[in-house]
Amino acid sequence: MGARCSRLSGCWWESQFKPTDLESSDLENGSKSNQETIPGFCEYTFEQLRVATSGFSVDNIVSEHGEKAPNVVYKGKLSNDRFIAVKRFHKAAWPDSRQFLEEAKTVGHLRNERLANLIGCCCEGDERLLVAEFMPNETLAKHLFHWEAQPMKWAMRLRVALYLAEALDYCSGKGRALYHDLNAYRVLFDQDGNPRLSCFGLMKNSRDGKSYSTNLAFTPPEYMRTGYSVPYSLTILFALTGRVTAESVVYSFGTLLLDLLSGKHIPPSHALDLIRGKNFLMLMDSCLEGHFSNDDGTELVRLASRCLQYEARERPNPKSLVTALIALQKDTEVPSYELMGISQGTASAAESLTLTPFGEACTRMDLTAIHEILEKVGYKDDEGIANELSFQMWTNQMQETLNSKKHGDTAFRAKEFSTAIECYTVFIDGGTMVSPTVFARRCLSYLMNDMPQEALGDAMQAQVISPDWSTAFYLQAAALFSLGMDTDAQETLKDGTTLEAKKNSKS
């Protein structure tokens, strides 16, 4: 472990990647700021994503289906403090690594503000992972079906429909018309409250690229046409293996329009019966009563019924959907976050937190004060490691390794930081014992020697060993301040302060 950590700590991770070149046309609909903040597509190592997700911690699972889903989505945080969504596939999903990589790169070339864009992937051994922009404001399913404060407003529902149609139209124009398992869980809301379509649905769901929708009530009718009289169980099997087509994607979009109209997940057959009987008002969400005109409701119902046509060829294409939905928009000047009731422009959590002495020392870049704090705390945060080391002292190898640590401690205490680096490196490279405090002390020694990138790597390794150790975050902040990355440093400082506050509240 020591050698691998040493290699990682010697660089600023993302600066080593060579992003895939993107055509300027692939940044359509995006503002200049959006274009500048979306990174190019790159390949990550499994170790990077493991660290980013705190070892794929259960606490970081954000997919609505939780741990039982075959492909779980985790929230993660890269070394430059960029938040990401990491989808980890079941190892049997993509046996052909070359096919997975090619598919990911193709999707990764897309760039549009209507998408939660794919920014990278990982393909090591049996591991297959996708990395996308993280959307912090939940899913459409959450806001439509499980809202707490207020139901989604009519104008926002119309905006969601339009933005999704624009996303599908963009993808179709780029040769990616097939979207797998389009539903309310695939629609995410960004920091501004704008809806985005998850890029994960643009990837095939399995080795053969077939859909795995399991609810027959929402399955496009063409999936059920076997041409034979077959038992119900075989019909289910056929539905589970029906291939996605551009027309079936539009059908699924129609089911989303029903979701937006009703605030519930209504089977299309039931909805169509109501529409044919001219009882479409029974479809409408009762929370919307008095907030929309009958003409607007009628138009959206008509559009949904067109998408749900039994014959696939009679369904509209995404471009015509966009045209129809533009004409229905309301309150276009009101930002999405206002319509969604999402607060914006408030003071950051970092500003509302009271910094500890350690946090204040990092803000001032007072390395002498940081040294005094680390020296005073000693090794008490190395939970259980000290006892393990004393138990193993009987072997010569262990004794030599411990001696290098002791010499490092002596040099660290005497502020001979170059010597401390050398001694701690011997201890770390020994690879038989792990100590987050040693990484922390070598981190500060690197900072004292004006080596901030190396210091950042050590602080991150301390976090890998002890994911909830506030000291690791504080030292990352100090290294980031040294690198001139003040915004990232402030965010990491906030994380460290929050962790320390939680620890103190428990003690």
Automatic annotation (TrEMBL):
PROSITE patterns: PROTEIN_KINASE_DOM. Its EC number is 2.7.11.1. One of its GO terms (molecular function) is protein serine/threonine kinase activity. GO terms for cellular component: plasma membrane. Keywords: ATP-binding, Cell membrane, Kinase, Lipoprotein, Membrane, Myristate, Nucleotide-binding, Serine/threonine-protein kinase, Transferase. The keyword Membrane applies. Pfam families: PK_Tyr_Ser-Thr, TPR_BSK1_C. It is a lipid-anchor. Coiled coil: none annotated. It comes from the Eukaryota. It is found in: Cell membrane. Residues 59-328 form the Protein kinase domain. This is non-specific serine/threonine protein kinase. It catalyses: L-threonyl-[protein] + ATP = O-phospho-L-threonyl-[protein] + ADP + H(+); L-seryl-[protein] + ATP = O-phospho-L-seryl-[protein] + ADP + H(+). InterPro entries: BSK, Kinase-like_dom_sf, Prot_kinase_dom, Ser-Thr/Tyr_kinase_cat_dom, TPR-like_helical_dom_sf, TPR_BSK1_C. Transmembrane segments: none annotated. GO terms for biological process: brassinosteroid mediated signaling pathway.
